[in-house]
């Protein structure tokens, strides 16, 4: 992957990343800064889950340019695109937590739908004004989720051909953004690539999603909430593997194509939480068994039963495959959180979130 990036992103290539203060966006920005010589323009609204510590920690030689912009503000978005003058755009900025979309769908509609619309319009104007050679190489990569496909039963997997059937406010707004991106391609010819990924995990994830939330609860001896009976299944993807796939899709993917990215890591929530407890027992034997902390709580409304991704298309077409097993990725993630307790406290305090249940 390292040689690949330098080969395709010549020094000085201008890459715009929206949501580069987020978990996946931050991982992508770090990779671009450390493994290429591109100029990286990070357009982020600096919301509750944004954090730049991981980027500040690396030596990037002044190639990181942060623009504090909310995509809901069309004029500021257009102005930032003009300044960034990008050759490649990765669109990751979004409200992403399903539970928050149950309590407050409004922010999701604005950020994910209106925000994507404003970005597309700004990018379209920019792309149309580019000189021929830059225009031909330009790409807009929209990063989306498998949740747009809805909920699976006990068998089957999502593919690029699966019908859209979103069921949470979050998923419905991401589905809307996918449709907008696809329409801008078909109607205006904007050169787009779209990816739909499964559940990401890894270092630097704001502790509200299942894995980092469970880790922070277990570290502090608090009860671990398992929704419903814990039988819901997710397909876990290590964030660095996801970033490998994003770079391949953006640079080598077919225009107008969508790619499904899964982690070959299907586990029930109960399995994930029990494995985390086991790993915690090894690291904090004095507090074992951590499974005593697990508490079944009321289910999430509209809780999707199972997600599973068939990644054959991206594997065969672009040669991608994940490098991390779920077990090794989980253990290294856990160790990272144990070594970064002050960071967890800092981001939780700043967001005014103490791990309480949301979206019940
Ligand atoms: O599939 C990709 C999606 O994965 C992303 O698009 C979303 O942005 C991301 O939030 C994630 O959605 P989920 O709803 O699957 O993730 P979450 O970590 O919130 O929950 C994972 C599973 O764990 C889900 O079945 C609900 C359950 N859960 C979650 C929390 C926070 C619990 O049992 N207890 C909890 O405290």
For the CA atoms, what is the radius of gyration? 20 Å
Strand content: 15-25%
Instruction: Give the name of the CATH superfamily of the domain at 2-200 and 236-263 and 303-325.
Output: NAD(P)-binding Rossmann-like Domain
Mean pLDDT: 97
Across the major sheet, the strand order is: 3-2-1-4-5-6-10
- Overall shape: globular
**Distance between termini?**
42 Å
CATH architecture descriptor text of the domain at 2-200 and 236-263 and 303-325: 3-Layer(aba) Sandwich
Please, how many helices? 14
Sheet/helix structural class: alpha/beta
Q: Give the class-level CATH name of the domain at 2-200 and 236-263 and 303-325.
A: Alpha Beta
How many individual β-strands? 12
Give me the strand/helix succession. Answer: HEHEHEHEHHHEHEEHEEHEEHEHHH
What does this structure look like?
The protein is of the alpha/beta class and 360 residues long. It has a domain at 2-200 and 236-263 and 303-325: NAD(P)-binding Rossmann-like Domain (Rossmann fold, 3-Layer(aba) Sandwich), CATH 3.40.50. 45% of the residues lie in helices and 16% in strands. It has 14 helices and 12 strands. The chain has helices spanning 2-8, 23-35, 53-56, 74-84, 98-103, 105-128, 132-137, 169-188, 210-219, 239-252, 269-283, 312-318, 326-339, 341-351, and strands spanning 14-18, 39-44, 64-68, 88-91, 139-145, 192-197, 199-201, 224-227, 233-238, 258-261, 266-268, 294-297. Strands 3-2-1-4-5-6-10 form a 7-stranded parallel sheet, with helices on both faces. The longest helix is centred in the first third of the chain and has 24 residues, at 105-128.
